[in-house]
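Open question from group meeting: does this chain pack into something compact, or does most of it stay loose? Before anyone orders reagents, we agreed to write out a predicted structure and look at it together. Recording both the input and the output here so the notebook holds the full record.
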Amino acid sequence: MWERKTLLIPDQSGWIVCNYVNSTSQIQVLRIVNIPNWYFERVIFPKQDFRFEAPPDADLEIHTGILASAILSDKIQCDRLRIS
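Structure tokens returned:
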């Protein structure tokens, strides 16, 4: 799956392509909340491969578990998820 957000941030020239794989057996919710005027949230299924574009300084939050009670299980800077 490929995702590109084009809302609210006019200059996306420095954005990077990132890849995240849900290697767990649980549904995960991915969120980026540290970029002003921009909010990113996606549900990722077990073993799903997910590509997206984001600013290099964005932090990807990974929430794992049942959606109503998911806990923050990890936070990864998007620059570490960059693909060539």
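Observations to bring back to the group:
Strands lie at 2-3, 16-21, 28-32, 40-44, 49-54, 59-64, 71-77.
The chain is about 0% helix and 45% strand.
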